[in-house]
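Exercise 4. Each item below gives a protein and its sequence. For each, produce the structure-token representation.

Item: Rrf2 family nitric oxide-sensitive transcriptional repressor (Actinomadura coerulea).
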Amino acid sequence: MHLTQSTDLALRVLMLLGARDERRSAAELAESLRVAPQHMAKIVQRLRRDGFVSTTRGRGGGVVLAGGVTDLPVGEIVRVLEGPGEAVECDSPPCPLRGDCRLRGALRAAQEGFLASLNRVRLRELVADPTGPVLLSLAPPASAGAPSPVEEGL
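Answer:
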């Protein structure tokens, strides 16, 4: 299964936030992960909407993990971020094989197996050693400065 770039970045944001339990600005997250601030703002908004993070505007604001997120299975996080879609789209345009094809069922089973495998890992395990120190090196301690323009859109 192939994850969207948005899901990949969202997982990395959750890992960064989980490695150091403090608020981060969206600009700091963007810099740490080397993505455009506008793209990071969209990722943070999505994570907030899905309940994985909370955000606060203004001085001293930023992004922080919502309670209990580090205990979530990674497969459940991916399921929320990726949405209900399937690996193949058989209905648009309609596939002439869809009535007698076994591919769709096989791909559904593979997708469920992929998510079940990810469910054996909790987010907190992804930020444990040896990954934790690397994540901490990407995310220096939060600055006490004014919020970036990216936060103003949160």
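Check: The first helix runs from residue 5 to 19.
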